[in-house]
Amino acid sequence: MRTDRANDAITITGLTVRYGGNTALERIDYELAGGELCGLIGVNGSGKSTLFKSIMGLQAPSSGSVRLFGHSPAAARKLGLLGYVPQAEAVDWTFPVSVREVVMMGRYGYMGRTRRPGHADKAAVAEALERVDLTALAHRQIGELSGGQKKRAFVARGIAQGAKLMLLDEPFAGVDIGSEQLITDQLRELNRTGTTILISTHDLAQVPRLCSSALLLHRRVLASGAPAAVLTDANLALTFGHAPSETR
Ligand SMILES: Nc1ncnc2c1ncn2[C@@H]1O[C@H](COP(=O)(O)OP(=O)(O)OP(=O)(O)O)[C@@H](O)[C@H]1O
After folding, report:
1. What Rg do the C-alpha atoms of the chain give, in angstroms?
2. Is pLDDT of 231 > 80?
3. How far apart, in Å, are the Cα atoms of 122 and each of 108, 134, 152, 179, 193?
4. What InterPro entries does this protein's entry cite (predicted)?
5. Closest protein CA for atom 4 of ligand 1
6. Nearest C-alpha to atom 3 of ligand 1 is from which residue?
7. Which atom of ligand 1 is nearest to the CA of 17?
């Protein structure tokens, strides 16, 4: 039985994404109910980043559709519903902005055209910085932070924004144990207070500990649902038995 679409944070129907002759995602049907914290698992090249970009509206589908809380991705972004923590490689770290300014970007949707932060914006940024323990580094250029601190800055941006759906593309890659703990604590807290979260990770052991659902991907959805039902030996063999895409 299909889930109640009115309650869906993400509804993906028949999504196919091709890069030239290479099919990265093929006929994806997937629904994520509001309030879930879902772990996305797949080998390198299985289409995880493409899925995130499609959800963000940064990658046009070849066919099919993505709806977020009933909106198109572009509309959902405009409404400030989406927070995105991209893979480290996808960010230009030389961009001359401070950590505080990165977090303040989460408030742009509240500011109007002048982008002059008001009292509420400054307070939200200060609180978000505090929650990820970056207050002392707020003045630093973003590229001067460690890998884990950079991830925490992006998580803080999502917190300051009050995003209803947070997408995190491998937030634990190259991150030390302290940052990982801080990020997981914040994700749990955000989820507890109503934020729906989709997080890609290579750390299989973490999924049952952190997530309420799991999604196994290899160009197509291999399995999705409760972690215990999804993370079976047979499904994992299917997920990791695939060689990384040869076109990569
Ligand atoms: N801009 C692009 N142009 C052409 N092919 C691309 C492009 N981006 C991704 N691909 C291809 O699409 C497939 C899926 O890539 P994607 O980056 O979505 O996978 P991934 O699961 O996120 O991989 P990783 O875990 O290594 O980040 C791969 O075969 C990749 O080579």
Report:
1. 18
2. yes
3. 12, 15, 18, 24, 21
4. AAA+_ATPase, ABC_transporter-like_ATP-bd, ABC_transporter-like_CS, Metal_Ion_Import_ABC, P-loop_NTPase
5. 19
6. 19
7. 12
* Per-position b or e across 51-78, b if 16+ CB within 10 A of its CB: bbbbbbbbbebeebebbbbebebeebbe
48 Cα–ligand 1 center, Å? 8
Ligand 1 atom, smallest distance to 202 CA: 25
pLDDT, average across residues 59-75? 95
Instruction: Give the mean pLDDT of 34-45.
Output: 94
d(CA 33, CA 70): 12
Segment (H or E) for 84: strand 82-85
Report d(CA 68, CA 164) in Å as an integer. Answer: 10
Q: Mention every residue, 6+ apart, whose C-beta is less than 8 A from residue 69.
A: 8, 9, 34, 76, 81, 164, 165
Ligand 1 neighbours, Cβ below 6 Å, are 19, 22, 24, 42, 44-50, 245, 247-248
Closest CA to ligand 1's atom 27: 44
pLDDT in tens, 166-192: 999 998 888 888 889 999 999 999 999
**Burial of 48 per CB tally in 10 Å (0-12, 13-18, 19+):** buried
Quickly state the pLDDT bin for 242 (edges 50, 70, 90): low
* Ligand 1 centroid, distance to 51 Cα (angstroms): 10
| Arithmetic mean of pLDDT, 159-171 | 92
The DSSP 8-state label assigned to residue 71 in this structure reads B
Distance 110 CA to ligand 1 centre (A): 33
